[in-house]
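Materials and Methods. Structural model of 16S rRNA (cytosine(967)-C(5))-methyltransferase. The 437-residue sequence of 16S rRNA (cytosine(967)-C(5))-methyltransferase from Streptococcus oralis SK304 was retrieved and submitted for structure prediction as follows.
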Amino acid sequence: MTKVETARSLALTVLENVFVNQAYSNIALNKHLKGSQLSAADKGLVTEIVYGTVARKLTLEWYLSHFIEDRDKLDSWLYILLLLSAYQLRYLDKVPNHAVVNEAVELAKARKKGSEKLVNAVLRRILREGWPDVDSIKRKNKRDSIAYSLPVWLVSKLKEEYGEERAQAIFKSLLVRNKASIRVTDLSRKEEIKAVLKASDSPLAASGLVKEQGHFAGHDLFSEGAITIQDESSQLVAPALHLQGHEQVLDACAAPGGKTAHIASYLTSGKVTALDLYDHKLDLFQENAQRLGVADQVQTKKKDARKVHEFFGRDSFDMILVDAPCSGIGLLRRKPDIKYNKETADFTSLQEIQLEILGSVCQTLRKGGIITYSTCTIVSEENFQVVEAFLESHPEFEQVKLEHECKDILKDGCILITPELYGSDGFFISQFRKISE
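The predicted structure was written out as tokens:
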């Protein structure tokens, strides 16, 4: 008898991939959904279970610790099955409890005879006794860590950075499902596209439309290049360059290529040179540029952003974008697994890389030219401290103060968007002008 794939069996496979093999949740999920015969509704359930279980992992583990003697004695798949079942029982109102328990029991039985008894016992006990109270945790940071499923180091970091009240608002916002966000490539069609997609205007970006949820990549408007998927916060980067059309622009850390294409859309006789270390990513840039009708303005090169000055001469560029590799703390809503990755917390070594890239690219900029430095993180080591350190060690540069009509995203001449303000990704943008040789 062939094994019938169900939404929950697929969710289990994806979560094993994420928790055991350290796969990225978004990549693992897309890969498995692509090859699946499940209905659209079931694929929606898989997505909900996977993202929900990953986003709330620490909370779910704490709950389960009250009902399981020793998790280390359980097979990893069995523990993950209990996690995803606990997620559904606790957070999914539309799914009947008996359906969750029955399917978990069936999955366990199919995987390893006898294991279904434990699954049945644990889940029924949870339903009988109810969920333990997170408020009973005495230590404040530990309590917030469990309540919001954030590691303690990140809880204390964000409190230190933003104060208790704003940090709490950020924590809460990270558990709200990410909006779907697109960039309209021809602004004269924005109203028409907005109506077709039943979307609304982004409060942040003039080119942006947002919707609670939506699968835009499958739409005709996407294939014809009228829209592209890009978070509203990152749509602020290209307009901040104030391009006239003739400039030579360098996009030093171009992956995944959304900002490259956006920059290219402002160019006529100018060109944007996009760098990455991987061929397959450079191919994607070209494909994307082709779809969006800006391929003539984009050239790609396989180069390390830290060695730009070795390949390009002085005065090569009028504008440079360094959208730097960073901890990605601003993307936690979209990529919840980032928060469990220990390297994420290594802000000092990330800062070194960020300054190394800036130190290299600045040697190729003409006098009067502009560097835009951006990240998708909200911690000062990778943002304001980088700005300060760069300007201190490069007296030939001055900071350009950025403006935006949303005054709550402006700080010290930079743009800093935290996720709770507009429900977007967290994002940072700053700018420097070369004033002398």
